[in-house]
């Protein structure tokens, strides 16, 4: 992800059991964000030789949260590590499919603004 793509994003999320959204900041290879259920996102991104963007993301879900993939996060919450790739032209894609341990999530990333605005 080139520097021109750094910025604030909204991620519209859809799973087999529900929908949600998260606000994410991308800056200099780092990702951080949260959603309305208190889920925290922290990770890194990098340009790959394939032309895609590699993402390594830690997802921390608080206890007893209903998951959009179905089920709940349980009494102790969940910590999930996701490693995936997205196309460099992700903003022109109708959605990005992310396969996680609880099932797939379709994600649409929309840039809200640059960080310097």
Q: What descriptors fit this protein?
A:
8-stranded antiparallel sheet
In short:
The chain is mostly beta strands and 117 residues long.
Detailed description of the structure:
With 117 residues, the chain is mostly beta strands. It has one domain. Helices cover 0% and strands 57% of the residues. It has no helices and eight strands. It has strands spanning 7-15, 18-27, 30-35, 40-47, 53-61, 78-86, 96-100, 103-113. Strands 6-5-4-3-2-1-8-7 form an eight-stranded antiparallel β-sheet, with no helix packed on it. Strand 1 and strand 2 form a beta hairpin.
Helix-strand blueprint:
Blueprint: E1 7-15, E2 18-27, E3 30-35, E4 40-47, E5 53-61, E6 78-86, E7 96-100, E8 103-113
Antiparallel strand pairs: 1-2, 1-8, 2-3, 3-4, 4-5, 5-6, 7-8
Poorly predicted segments: none
For the largest beta-sheet, the strand count, sense and barrel status come to: 8 strands, antiparallel
* Proportion in β-strands: over 45%
Taking all residues together, what is the mean pLDDT?
A: 93
Number of domains: 1
- Note the run of SSEs as H and E: EEEEEEEE
Distance N to C terminus:
19 Å
Helix content: under 10%
Structural class: mainly beta
Q: Order of strands in the sheet with the most strands?
A: 6-5-4-3-2-1-8-7
- The number of helices is 0
